[in-house]
């Protein structure tokens, strides 16, 4: 996930991949809510504190300023956390913000108590004690007080600047047209953070983390993307057979194997799901004119790893999706996989860049 993320859709057809729920009503507006969170930003900062080159590209000065003050214990904890992250293909900030989403946002003390009161937190394993020590260190150096004094005003200024623009986009009804069912709420909640690059993080179905460096287009893409994710996974619409066929395509599978693991998507189904969501996000973005170069950005985004998304986009242009398919993305996807099986993914990918 680089500087493109997740929000909503515009389309005249109702998508029928999933049954509609009669007890829920479709929404007609989008309620934008912007928040701050010292807890979430601290979790994001830990990415940089590890000295991970992937994050130092964005926060080298922050790391250099902090690193000289690390205690020997904190250095060892950060080293173990970095090793654990690399071995398991994790995004530390995403793991922590999701696990502790229910804790208050205003103080790290609640977070520290949660670590102390839970003998084991699923997914953290042997590094739970290290994370607790890192949080204690941030408390000891008055990170929270400095954050309230220096960072919150900066984030509030960003909120004031982007809210009028966000309010112009009524995205929830458009996403509902894509997924074919009402969303749980018409609210979209953004937690703006200082240390979140290059990620956007989904905390829940309608709640996200976005960095204050991102412009309004990126923030919109963050929301579109993540609000689509729950509706387009293998278990939702039965495409296990298609996943197996895609894994046989050398071009697609090689792209999966060789991608930078720091971006996530380190199992094949997750990689394919991400491509599906990205291409649907792209279709929405096209409707809102959010992306200037709809074709070529696939070559550079996340180091060009999303070749299956580019293949789907190529197919959408030639197969007239969604009009021809009456809104059924599943039917479109099954047909695309059949084409990949007979023609090869590389041929369809190249067609995107050779066609007029």
What descriptive keywords fit this protein?
globular, Zincin-like, disordered N terminus, 3 domains, mainly alpha, 17 helices, 356 residues
Q: Please, could you describe this protein's structure?
A:
With 356 residues, the protein is mainly alpha-helical. The chain folds into three domains: 31-36 and 152-220, Zincin-like; 38-149; 232-354, no CATH class. It is 57% helix and 6% strand. It is built from 17 helices and four strands. A hairpin with a 2-residue loop joins strand 3 and strand 4. Helix 1 runs antiparallel to helix 4 (92-99) and helix 15 packs across helix 17.
Q: What's the overall geometry?
A: globular
Looking at how many chains there are and whether they match, the oligomeric state comes to: single chain
Q: How many domains, as an integer?
A: 3
Question: How much helix, percentage-wise, in residues?
Answer: 55-70%
- Order of strands in the sheet with most strands: 1-2-4-3
Number of helices: 17
Strand content: 5-15%
C-alpha termini separation: 29 Å
The strand count comes to 4
Q: Describe the biggest sheet? A: 4 strands, mixed
The structure class reads mainly alpha
Order of helices and strands: EHHHHHHHHEEEHHHHHHHHH
Give the low-confidence spans: 1-23
What do the pLDDT scores average to? 85
Radius of gyration: 21 Å
């Amino acid at each position: 996930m680089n500087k493109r993320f997740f929000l909503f859709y515009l389309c005249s057809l109702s998508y029928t991949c999933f049954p509609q729920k009669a007890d829920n009503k479709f929404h007609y507006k989008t309620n934008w809510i912007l928040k701050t969170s010292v807890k979430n930003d601290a979790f994001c900062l830990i990415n940089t504190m590890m000295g991970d080159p992937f994050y130092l590209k964005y926060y080298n000065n922050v790391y250099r300023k902090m690193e000289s003050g690390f205690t020997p214990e904190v250095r060892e904890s950060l080293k173990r956390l970095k090793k654990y992250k690399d071995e398991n293909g994790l995004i530390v900030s995403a793991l922590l913000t999701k696990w502790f989403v229910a804790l208050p946002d205003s103080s790290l003390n609640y977070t520290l108590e949660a670590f102390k009161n839970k003998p084991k937190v699923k997914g953290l394993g042997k590094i739970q004690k290290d994370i607790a020590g890192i949080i204690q260190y941030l408390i000891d150096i008055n990170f929270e007080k400095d954050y309230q004094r220096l960072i919150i005003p900066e984030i509030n200024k960003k909120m004031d600047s982007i809210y009028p623009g966000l309010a112009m986009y009524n995205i929830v009804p458009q996403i509902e047209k894509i997924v074919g069912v009402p969303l749980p709420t018409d609210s979209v909640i953004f937690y703006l953070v200082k240390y979140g690059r290059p990620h956007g993080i989904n905390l829940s179905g309608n709640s996200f983390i976005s960095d204050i460096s991102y412009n309004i287009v990126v923030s919109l893409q963050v929301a579109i993307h993540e609000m689509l994710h729950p509706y387009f996974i293998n278990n939702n619409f039965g495409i296990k057979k298609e996943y197996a066929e895609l894994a046989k395509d050398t071009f697609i599978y090689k792209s999966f194997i060789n991608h930078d693991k720091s971006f996530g998507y380190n199992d094949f189904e997750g990689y394919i799901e991400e491509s599906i969501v990205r291409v649907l996000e792209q279709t929405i973005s096209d409707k809102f004119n959010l992306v200037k170069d709809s074709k070529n950005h696939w070559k550079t985004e996340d180091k060009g790893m999303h070749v299956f998304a580019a293949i789907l986009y190529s197919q959408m242009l030639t197969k007239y999706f969604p009009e021809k398919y009456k809104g059924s993305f599943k039917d479109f996807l099954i047909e695309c996989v059949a084409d990949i099986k007979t023609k090869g993914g590389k041929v369809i990918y190249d067609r995107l860049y050779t066609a007029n």
